[in-house]
Amino acid sequence: GYYMKNNFLNTVHFEQEVLVFEDYHIFKDLNSLNNYPFNSYSSTPDPWDSNFWKRHLKEQFILEKNFHGDLLYRSTKASLEKWAEYKNISINELLTTLEKNKLYEDESNQAKDDKDYWKMKSESLFNESAIFGVTPDVMKNLSKTYKLQDAPSLYTELAKIEVCDFKSLLRFSKHFGLPYGLMEDIGFDIYLNGDCIFFPFVSVPVLNKKIAIYKQDFEWFKVIQTKDLSKIRSMIPESALISIDNIDDDEAVINYAKNHLTFLLGKLDAFNVSMYVEFQNGSFVPGVWFSDLFNFAYFQIAKALSNDVEVRYCDNCDHIFEVTHKRQRFCPPLPNRKRSSCEMAFNNRLKKEKKLKGEI
Ligand SMILES: [Zn+2]
Fold first, then answer.
1. Using one digit for the tens of pLDDT, what is the confidence trace for 15-40?
2. Structural domain of residue 314, as residue ranges?
3. 330 C-alpha to ligand 1 centroid (Å)
4. 115, 224, 227, 295: which has the fewest Cβ within 10 Å?
């Protein structure tokens, strides 16, 4: 049977809901916000609402600390290559810019009133006004919500998003909502429960940086849980080889990976969760609140590691999922769905192939 350790991560409650819009898109220019139906319920729409979003979205990149250093040292080479491709520059140019701007970050206190730092961030190659957010059309009919406790596969689905790949971001966001962004309901005609997670807009570079770091951390989680020794060996930097007694010793290699992941997770502020206590059915239960979906995904990774869960490659999409029943071959259903979309896609493809061969 499935053995659950007596571990507080397994008993803690999380009752937050996430608000999901039906559609999201990219817009290149903050002035597009003028066309949004902010405060559509009020007879005199307030232009101040679009100005609120413009101002905060414009500053989101500049206020994001350690942007260049994080991207340089906490993401995979594959992610950086994708970013270079998106910017239409060479990987070397991208790395040089990151190194140069990281020095600025190290030498300043990254404060809002530091003029040189502000100038560097404003002029950074990575600064762009592109915004990923809800489309104006669907803004008025917010219909879907789900509870975090009903989204056990969020952390494996989040890892499917590729850096600077809007198709994969859109796919995730349509089901789970934006993973990160500015949490504010100004101009929206909705009633927000205090503990709801709701992000209508996010600065594209800031979100992509979070994705890049998450993917790197998740990659280590994946090779550890799949015990992919040859992959781990290929991921160990040469400078770290001396810290492993014998590279042919599988256990030493796995232990290196586990220590390294612990080190990576230690760099996060994602574990600074807010706790609360609730009185339910005659007893007090402890709970935690999450500030965004990365925060929740890291909680799920910590839980998966401490329970040493079994993961498997999906027969359809080739990403890993957490196994919850023995014969499972596909990623589990997305929130508010009964059936696995990977299983359905797989079966449809099989049917088409059979048709082509004239078997049906
Ligand atoms: Zn899948």
1. 899 999 989 999 999 999 998 988 87
2. 310-360
3. 5
4. 115
